[in-house]
Amino acid sequence: MIEVEVKAKINNTKKIRETLTKMNIKKTKEEYQEDIYFASPIADFSKTDEALRIRKTTSDTDEKIIITYKGPKIDKSSKTREEIETIVENKENLKIILEKIGFHPVRTIKKRREFYKFEKFEISLDFVEGLEPYMEIETILNDEKPYNDIQNEIFEIFKKIGISDGFERTSYMELLENKK
Fold this sequence. Notes:
This protein is α+β, with helices and mostly antiparallel strands and 180 residues long. It has one domain (2-179): Hypothetical Protein Pfu-838710-001 (Beta Barrel). The chain is 26% helix and 44% strand. The chain is built from 5 helices and 9 strands; from the N terminus they run βαβαβββαβββαβα. The protein has helices at residues 13-22, 45-48, 91-100, 147-161, 172-179, and strands at 2-9, 26-39, 51-58, 63-73, 81-87, 104-118, 121-128, 134-140, 167-168. An 8-stranded antiparallel beta barrel has the order 1-5-4-3-2-6-7-8.
């Protein structure tokens, strides 16, 4: 599956929330996420632009553990890439299995996310420990349009919300690493 995603740094979360409300875009949920990213014994993910993570999500109604593989970004203006996910039952056992076959954890990222739904798009306000707030708009690519058409729709949504700069292709892990 291909995830079409664009991320931008935001300066005024209160104003963004007010704009979303005026646009009749409603908050659907809030959750806490803890991501453990792994390094591969056979590929340097920083060079191949791939990622492997275990994510634990916690909300008022739910708790999930998901393992995700992210392929290399496929363009220069967004974070569009292949993404494969599956739910797992036990985070600690999965972590042990990965370590036994040579993967090792490189960073844990903690964030609070507010989710909003607009048409076929998911909008999130992200509050990552150690970073400024960001907004992501994403959707899963269907066969009806090329991904660059979907990206253009996402950039138009950002524009309607009042965001025209601060776009970022770098992952939260890389942003945190660059702050060192």
